[in-house]
Structures are given as C-alpha cells and as structure tokens.
Design a protein that fits this description.
The complex is a heterodimer of chains A (335) and B (320). Chain A has 335 residues and is an alpha/beta fold. Chain A folds into two domains: 4-222, 3-Layer(aba) Sandwich (Rossmann fold); 229-321, no CATH class. Chain A is built from ten helices and twelve strands. In chain A, strands 6-7-8-3-9-10-12-11 form an eight-stranded mixed β-sheet, with helices on both faces. In chain A, strand 11 and strand 12 (313-316) form a beta hairpin. Chain B is globular. In chain B, strand 1 and strand 2 form a beta hairpin. Chain B has two domains: 2-85, no CATH class; 93-318, MetI-like (MetI-like fold, Orthogonal Bundle), CATH 1.10.3720.10. By secondary structure, chain B is an all-alpha fold. Chain B has helices spanning 2-29, 45-55, 61-73, 87-122, 127-141, 144-158, 177-214, 217-224, 229-266, 272-281, 285-313, 315-318; strands at residues 79-80, 85-86. The chains are: A alpha/beta (335), B mainly alpha (320). Chain A binds chain B through residues 56-58, 80-81, 83-89, 92-93, 95, 97, 100-106, 114-115, 118-119, 151, 153-154, 164, 167-168, and chain B through 216-218, 220-229, 231, 235-236, 239-240, 243, 313-316, 319.
C-alpha cells in the first residue's frame, strides 16, 4: 500500500460532442508504484493521452468522473489553484512534440527557471540560474551556459526535447508522465532520449508513466505494461509476461504487427479496421470484437471484465481463450 | 539587432526614391501647368512661353525631377497658388495639428482595443465576448465619415460638449495652460470618432490571436509546470498574442492617414488631411504633390517602425 504512488479508480473522462458526452477513458482502474515504469500502449485514439491529461488536470472541457489518488489525495477535479502546487513539483510531464511544447518567445533557461521559481519562491536568481545550468548539463546539453540564453527555434528537435525533460524533472517529481516522448524525433535521437530517461529513472526513483505506441520502447523501458483499447485496459502484466505470454487478441495483434528481424516474413500482420471514433465506440460487449470478426460471438463476454490469469496478469473478456489468427493452424498461437 | 535595423533603413532609401519619382510623374501627367489656366488672358503667348522656358517647364522630365528633388532638399516644396505662400510653410502649420490628432487617436485605439481584445479572447463565447464582437461588426460596417458626422451632431451640436471646428479656441496665447487644454478639447472628439471605428480591426485581431495562442502546446507546458491561470495569461499567452498587434502598429499609422482626411474635413480641423482634400478640389497641385509625398513617406516609415518593433519583440526575426 505504501508503495503506491498513484491510484486511479474508475476514471471516466468524457468529451462533449454536440450534445452528448462520450467517454474517451472509460472506467479505468490502474495503480502506479514508486520507482516503477508503467508503459501504456495502444493505437492512436485509444485514450492514452486523454488519461495522461486527466492525471495532470490539463483537460479544458472534459467531464472527469472517478478518483485519481496521488499519495491518497484525490486530484481528479481538483481546482487548478490547489493542483498547481503539485503540477511541476510532484508531477512532471514530458510532452509529445518538443517543437511546439516550448514558448517561442522565452529563452529556454528562463522557461526551465520558471518551474523552479513557481515552486520555490525563496530561491535567489543566481541560485536558479546555477540550478538550470546544472539541469541542462544533466540532460546532456553541451555548452549549457550558452544554451541558457537561446530561444527554442535555435535548438534542434532532440535538444528541445532535452529542454522539455529538464523542465519536467527540475523539481525532482515523484511521478513523471512521458506522453510519447520520442514520437516526434528521428530514430537516433529517439534512442538517446530513451537512454536519458532511463538514466534519470535510475537516479530519481520516480514512478514513470510512459505512454507510447512503440513496443520497442516498452520492451526497453517498462517494468509493467498496460495495453489500452478504446478507453479501457484490455491487458496488464509485467513486461516479461506480456511479451512472452500475451493473452488478449489486441495485445497479440499489436505484438504481431511488429516487423521481426530474425524471421523472414513475407507479410506484416495488420489489425483489421481502425479504432472507432469516440462517438461510434461500441459501449456494450467486447470493444475489440468488430476487429476480429472471425472469432465466434459466444466467445466474448457480455460485460467484459478484467480476469486475473496469473498473479498480476489481467486480461479483459474471455475471448482470448478461443482467439487465434486466421492464418494460424490450430493451437499454434505464438507472437 | 543593429545590423537588422541598419539594413532595414537602407532598404527604405530606394523605396522613397521610387515614391518620389511616381509622385512627380503623376503630377506632371496631370493636364496643364503653373502657367495655364488661371493666368491673365491678356498676356501674350510668347511671354508665357518665355516664362515656361525660364522656369524650366520645357526641360525633359528627369531634369525637372532633378530640380524638384534639389528643391526638396532645401525644404522648397513649391508655391501654393491658392494661399500664395510656400507649401512648406503651409504644411508646417498643419503638420503639428495632424500629428497631435493622430497621436491621440493611436493612444485611444490601443486603450480601447487591448482591454477589449483581451476580455473577448480570454472569455471567448461569454456574453461579454459576444457584446464586444457585436461592437466590432458594427464598427466594420459603419463608414467613418458617417459615424464622425453623427458624433459631431450628437456631442458637438446637440450636447455642445465639444467644439465643432478648429484646432484651438480663438484668442488663446500659445504656451499657456489654457491653450493646451483648448487644443486637447478640440482634438478629442475627432480622435474618439476615428479611434472607435479604427480600433475594431485590432480588437478582433487580438481576440483571434489570444484564442489561437490558448490552444498552443506550450500553454499546456506552462500549466503542467504549475503556473497559475493569471501567470499563464500574462507571461505566455499575452506576449505571444500581442506580437502581431505590435507588428501591425506601423500599418495602423497608414490607416490613420486615410482617416484624418475624412475626420479633419468633417470637424473643420486644420490639419493635413483637410488641406489635402481642399487642395484637390481647388486644383492646388503643388500642395497635393507635397502632401502625397509626405503621406507616402509616413507610410514607409510606419512599415519601418513595424519591422523594428517586431524585431525587438520576436527573437525569431532578430536572428535573420
């Protein structure tokens, strides 16, 4: 219990489309422990970022129901004035696109300094500048003192992401949310940034929520993995279990969609269809069923819930028991 | 920064030369010259022709242009035939009046548009925003010369709160406190009339900029840092939104020139705009030419000012 950093209970984040509210995160329950990297994976539009924004209180006009307990304190629907004491201090966030995440008119040093200043009013200006330069060094920016006075447009994408990370870790948060931190970067920079986050994880001992759709990132970084589909968690397990023994059809499909370098594949697996738009989500029954139409209707539960398969490994719906890929021979379900 | 400014000023030189050539050629293309028209018909043609030769009116246009430019450098803008005095002297009196009127109008434009734009953009779709947007639509749809007439009638004639003409009450001693107050009182109503109409573009511009900036990613970053709502607005949204407004400042001056032509005429305010319109109707070409040149230079200077302001506030431009 004391190890729990964040406990999300029955979270429902809904957006208004015309006159109705539609849940992008639907009845989601999740815990994040201290000193753990929890990866959240899923396709675009399955509610990963909506979840991250709900935790940080960054939604503008969403309806948020349920509880988000940070160290036992409910931060769901907390007024901004109270939440601002936590945001940037206890909770940091790394954004997806470093090209737009920085204020174009502010020196990067000043932008990092702002988060220090907001949570530590007694810090003097010289102390702050020193601390910012220390942070810039920490995130691997060469010539930190020079970079301090530069504007975002003078830095490359990778450098800007380092600045964003420096901002997120400035006050040594206990919870770090990284929302697809490498999506907007090219491959070599991606691995540098991941290495950086790994290093930081080792010296900060923070709980990290890593949102991504890159399974390579998951394998490299995560301790536990939650697979999200259509606003729900469909499978959650520690990283070894998930990769060696995936259960849910969606998880297996995702893993199967990754090109494999060791095997000669003639064709890459493709998941049929797309994530349905928010207002067209099937709210009843197994939400993934339309994308695996060959699976017998009776295999799905009427109201799918998470089943604990082995300790710590949960799978939603019963359809995993009968699921196999159409091109597989009976019983040969491997990823 | 200095490099940028110097380069920007150097670019201005060919612009002004081109402008002066155009102004000069257009004046030349107008039918007649100083010795046709209102000349005593009893003077015989040879004398007039001799006078033409003497004044250099038979020289090719580039020679005449050269003479004209030389005159400009000595402050000689020619003679006004209507007032029988040098154009430079004539304009000099009115330049100050128009300057003060324009300055007052500019101050009012920003005093109105910045708060309204901020309220409208920050609380978009609220009743206050709808009210302000409604005003801007009415402002866009109302011609300045009609609005100015209505203002003059209501506040000048009906309520008699403001004088209805002139730039200062007669019999005032220049330099005294009463003189300054009288000046201000005379320019207030035309300035308000012009500002109320001219400001609506800026209000809408600022509103849209704020709404746009509100949705930028770096605003989320600022919120995620724990910045309070007022800090997010003052430090992050406002500065980014005011940028294009600052850039627009110089062009606002250009717009004012058009405005003063109407407003000064309607309020019988002795400024350059009024002089311009009168000179056109009286075919006082030397005055018109000089004024067009001055207005043109003011426009070019306005654009220069815009660029310099923008380079001061926007680091992305400073570097180039």
């Amino acid at each position: 219990m004391s190890n729990q950093l964040l406990e999300i209970k029955n979270l429902k984040t809904s957006f208004r489309i015309k006159d109705n509210y539609y849940a992008a995160v639907d009845d989601l329950t999740l815990t994040v422990n201290k000193n753990e990297v929890l990866a959240i994976v899923g396709e675009s539009g399955c509610g990963k970022s909506a979840l991250a924004f709900s935790i940080m209180g960054l939604h503008n006009r969403a309806k948020i129901e349920g509880n988000i307990l940070y160290k036992g304190q409910d931060i769901a629907n907390m007024p901004a004035s109270k939440l601002n004491k936590l945001r940037g201090k206890d909770m940091g966030m790394i954004f997806q696109d470093p090209l737009t995440a920085l204020n174009p008119l502010m020196e990067v040093g000043e932008q990092i300094g702002e988060v220090l200043m907001l949570h530590n009013k007694s810090m003097s200006k010289t102390e702050r500048v020193e601390k910012v330069i220390e942070l810039l060094n920490k995130v691997g920016i060469p010539r930190a003192a020079h970079t301090f006075g530069q504007f975002p447009h003078e830095l490359s994408g990778g450098m800007r992401q380092r600045v964003v990370i420096a901002m997120a870790i400035a006050n040594e948060p206990e919870l770090l949310i990284a929302d697809e931190p490498t999506t907007a970067l090219d491959v070599t920079i991606q691995s540098q940034i991941l290495d950086l986050i790994k290093e930081l994880k080792e010296d900060m001992h923070a709980g990290i929520i890593m949102i991504t759709h890159d399974l390579g990132v998951v394998a490299e970084m995560a301790d536990r993995v939650a697979v999200m589909y259509a606003g729900q968690i469909v499978e959650i397990a520690d990283v070894q279990t998930l990769f060696s023994n995936p259960k849910h059809p969606y998880t297996r499909s995702l893993l199967n969609s990754v090109p494999n370098a060791s095997e000669t594949q003639s064709k890459l697996h493709v998941i049929q269809g797309i994530v349905p738009a928010l207002q067209n989500l099937p709210r009843k029954g197994c939400r993934f069923s339309p994308r695996v139409p060959w699976v017998d209707k009776d295999a799905h539960e009427e109201n799918p819930v998470l089943h604990e398969v082995t300790p710590g490994h949960f799978v939603r719906c019963t359809c995993y028991k009968e699921f196999q890929f159409p091109d597989e021979s009976q019983g040969g379900a491997t990823s | 920064m200095w490099k940028f400014t110097v380069r920007r000023i150097l670019i201005m030189i060919p612009q002004i030369i081109l402008l002066s050539v155009l102004v000069f050629l257009m004046a030349k293309m107008m039918p007649g010259d100083a010795l046709s028209g209102l000349i005593d018909p009893n003077i015989d043609a040879e004398t007039i022709e001799a006078k033409r030769e003497q004044l250099g009116l038979n020289d090719p246009w580039y020679v005449q242009y050269g003479d004209w430019v030389e005159g400009l450098f000595h402050g000689d803008l020619g003679q006004s035939f209507r007032f029988k005095m040098p154009v430079s002297e004539l304009i000099g009196q009115r330049l100050a009046n128009t300057f003060w009127l324009s300055l007052a109008t500019l101050i009012l434009i920003y005093a109105i548009s910045i708060p309204l734009g901020i309220i409208s953009g920050r609380y978009n779709d609220s009743w206050a925003d709808q009210f302000i947007t409604g005003y801007t639509y009415i402002g866009f749809a109302t011609p300045l010369f009609i609005f100015a007439l209505v203002m003059l009638w209501i506040f000048g004639f009906h309520f008699s709160w403001f004088p209805t003409g002139g730039s200062v009450a007669p019999g005032m001693e220049p330099g005294t406190f009463e003189y300054v107050m009288s000046k201000i009182q005379h320019l207030l109503l035309p300035a308000i009339s012009m500002a109320l109409i001219a400001t609506v573009g800026t209000v809408q511009y600022l509103r849209n900029e704020i709404i746009d900036t509100k949705q930028k990613d770096f605003i989320l970053t600022a919120r995620a840092k724990g910045a309070s709502e007022s800090r997010v607005y003052n430090r992050h949204i406002l500065r980014n939104s005011l940028l294009p407004i600052a850039a627009f400042f110089g062009y606002e001056i250009t717009g004012l020139i058009g405005g003063t032509v109407f407003v000064e005429t309607i309020f019988s305010y002795p400024g350059m705009g009024q002089l311009f319109l009168e000179s056109i109707t009286m075919r006082d070409y030397s005055v018109v030419t000089a004024l067009v040149l001055l207005f043109g230079i003011a426009t070019i200077l306005g654009a220069l000012l815009s660029d310099i302001i923008l380079s001061l506030v926007d680091p992305r431009i400073r570097i180039k």
